[in-house]
Design goal:
Length: 397
């Protein structure tokens, strides 16, 4: 029988973790311990109830894991590599994809919007507090009637009145929005028809965020419907280095790969659960792991994990070298999330009837995979981005 220690490392069949330098391996180990000790005991009940464990914000604040990519604004020392931040997203999702999504929205989408789109004064004003998680961020792009076509279809508008902007519209599926201190809101300037970014503070008059109920995926994430009615934002809170949707696309390009790493973490979490269950569960007088069909599912799962990890390893190296493009992150997101869907289904299959009971965890991974498969660009949209890159022909309608 496989030992618990061997199972803990079983998913890293090709020792990809060794690609990290020693100091970054220590940070990854700290991430693993944090998720195991602080997060894992909380997630089942909160997932069932559809609530967020607010006490985690203070624990993240003390963990030293927030703000690592932002040199000069986050933890002391050089900025973390894309490989480390990717593997951190993987480690978080290996325990719970909802908490990984909360962290990714704050530490990725919201903070990177300020880093990439803000001027130096804005970075100094917002990033240090966000890096200490004294304040929490959200990212409001998707709308009730526009998701994949948001670049052309954005209906939220902003009009300038002197040194103030007035924002009207609605956003949907906005993670962290019910409790975030800073919400990065994207709106179309009525004067030049270009997309601008605004940091809207919690409690701003005209801003409301209502939680989306009855979700069957990522239930811990507090997604919200946002309504903006005459929301007034000073010019000083408009992201000064954003002038069109092209700038928004740059942010999405950088963060989309993080979702692929999340998908890898979900695969690993489901695979490890299935492997452990197969070695412990007895049927017909022997462990499930002793049956050929079960071994086939486990090996196919490990193959998906290993090939996806290799793809993401190279993508992270390209990001660190500054040579990756939209199609590189799109291929990874489309491919890895599709492989994730297969792995969580095979893992649930190995559990049989127990696979639909939350106490065995695999049902949570199975359900959460569906949201990860769709957000940050559907498989179809990412396929068209890659298709245009390799053929030179645009198939977008």
């Amino acid at each position: 029988m496989t030992s618990h220690k061997e199972q803990q490392n079983a998913a890293d069949f090709y020792d990809f973790e060794s690609a990290l330098p020693e100091e970054e391996r220590k940070i990854l180990a700290r991430t693993r311990e944090f998720m195991r000790d602080e997060v894992r005991p909380l997630v089942t009940d909160h997932w069932a109830d559809g609530t967020f464990p607010m006490e985690l914000i203070a624990r993240f604040r003390e963990s030293g894991l927030v703000g690592l990519p932002y040199e000069g604004y986050g933890e002391p020392g050089p900025a973390a590599s894309h490989l480390l931040t990717g593997m951190m997203a993987m480690e978080m999702s290996r325990v719970d994809a909802s908490v990984a999504t909360f962290f990714g929205v704050h530490n990725g989408l919201a903070m990177y919007s300020v880093q990439a789109g803000g001027d130096e004064e804005q970075r100094e004003r917002w990033l240090p507090g966000m890096a200490r998680m004294e304040t929490v961020g959200a990212f409001a792009l998707t709308e009730p009637l526009d998701g994949s076509d948001i670049a052309a279809g954005m209906r939220t508008t902003a009009r300038r009145e002197g040194d103030t902007w007035v924002i009207d519209g609605a956003k949907r599926w906005i993670g962290n929005a019910t409790f975030a201190d800073h919400v990065v809101v994207w709106a179309r300037d009525v004067e030049d028809d270009q997309v601008k970014g605004f940091v809207v503070g919690r409690g701003t008059p005209g801003f409301t965020a209502e939680p989306i109920a009855h979700k069957t995926s990522l239930r811990i994430v507090q997604n919200a419907d946002i309504t903006l009615t005459g929301v007034r934002v000073p010019e000083t809170d408009r992201l000064q280095r954003v002038s069109s949707f092209r700038d928004v696309a740059e942010i999405l390009r950088a963060t989309r790969s993080g979702v692929a790493w999340q998908a890898l973490g979900v695969m690993i979490g489901a695979y490890e659960l299935a492997l452990r269950y197969a070695t412990e569960r007895q049927q017909f007088g022997r462990p499930l792991a002793g049956f050929q069909l079960v071994q086939d599912l486990l090996v196919k799962s490990l193959g998906n994990i290993t090939s996806s990890w290799g793809m993401l390893l190279q993508l992270a190296r390209m990001q660190d070298a500054g040579v990756f493009r939209d199609e590189h992150s799109s291929l990874a997101k489309a491919h890895v999330t599709a492989r994730m869907r297969e792995v969580v289904a095979w893992a649930r299959e190995i559990f049989g009837g127990n696979g639909i009971v939350l106490e065995h965890d695999v049902a949570r991974f199975f359900a959460d995979a569906e949201a990860i498969y769709s957000f940050e660009g559907t498989r179809e949209m990412n396929t068209l981005i890659v298709g245009k890159a390799i053929t030179g022909e645009s198939a977008f309608v």
